[in-house]
Design a protein that fits this description.
This protein has about 190 residues and is mainly alpha-helical. It has eight helices and two strands. Strands 1-2 form a two-stranded antiparallel sheet.
Length: about 190
């Protein structure tokens, strides 16, 4: 099925939108609106429902205000023939209150979108600066890593190092034994 110019199909953006509306997460809705093509609010899932249906279904006045701001239609039916407001599970009076609440919130939507867009640009700028700082880091050509070993010498050195790890030097063992004896003597004196 097709709704205006948009094919009805599930998408990650619609899933994120559904989740944000259902959880009353308006900040995520604003972030989606400023970081995606704003037409996403007009898209529909495979069942023909979209953001406007969810705003009514979950009784979310902020989401309803946002979608009205983007002129999402309320006159189109889903695959089952339901209009967005048909999914509202309350009385006619509660529906009127939801719509009135959304209308009161609409004047603030442009400023909120602008603030989120500015925050997003600031974050992008900071990330770019960090990337530039990381890219600017270079090893000093005067840095001397020490004498270079050929492959055979390196293999011998690695074998010797592995052997040393397996068998600690006698001096280390003797020092550890002496330290343990001293601790034992100190504990015995305390008792």
């Amino acid at each position: 099925p097709v709704c205006s110019a948009y094919e009805w199909a599930d998408s990650p953006t619609l899933t994120d939108t559904w989740k944000a509306v259902s959880e009353n997460d308006f900040n995520t809705l604003l972030a989606l609106a400023v970081s995606h093509d704003r037409d996403f609010v007009h898209h529909r899932a495979e069942d023909g429902r979209g953001p406007m249906w969810w705003a009514y279904e979950f009784k979310n006045p902020s989401a309803l205000a946002l979608f009205k701001h983007f002129e999402v239609t309320e006159d189109s039916a889903d695959a089952g023939g339901l209009l967005p407001a048909d999914t509202f599970g309350g009385t006619a009076e509660e529906l009127a209150e939801l719509r009135a609440d959304a209308e009161q919130r609409m004047p603030g939507i442009p400023a909120m979108l602008q603030q989120f867009a500015e925050k997003l640009e600031e974050v992008k700028r900071q990330q770019a600066e960090r990337f530039d700082d990381d890219a600017a880091f270079e090893v000093d050509p005067a840095f001397d890593a020490g004498p270079q070993l050929d492959d055979e010498e390196e293999d011998i050195d690695q074998d010797e190092a592995a052997e040393e790890k397996r068998m600690p030097p006698e001096d280390d063992v003797a020092a550890k034994v002496a330290a343990l004896k001293a601790k034992a003597a100190a504990i015995k004196d305390e008792i």
